[in-house]
Amino acid sequence: MLYLEKRHETLSDEPWSEIKASATIDTIVQQCLALFQADNLWPLHPDLIENYDLKQTPTSLWHGTAGTIWALTQLHLTNNNLPSVNFEPYLDLLINRQSEWLSQIDASLKIDPATPGYLLGYTGAYMVQWRIKKDPNILNKIEQLIQTNINNPNNELMWAAPGMMLVALFLHKDTKEKRWLDLYHQAAIYMLSIYKYDENIDSKIWTQYMYGSEAKHLGLVHGFAGNAVALLKGIHLFEATQQRKIIDDIERTFINTAIVEDELANWLPCVGKPRPGREDMLVHICHGAPGMAIGLADLWELGSKKSQALLLKAGNLVWAAGPLEKPWGLCHGTAGNGYVFLKLYDLTKEEIWLTRARQFGMHAIKQYEQAAEKYGMIRTDAWCGDLGLALFLQSCIAQNSEFPMIDYF
Question: pTM for the complete prediction?
Answer without folding.
Answer: 0.97
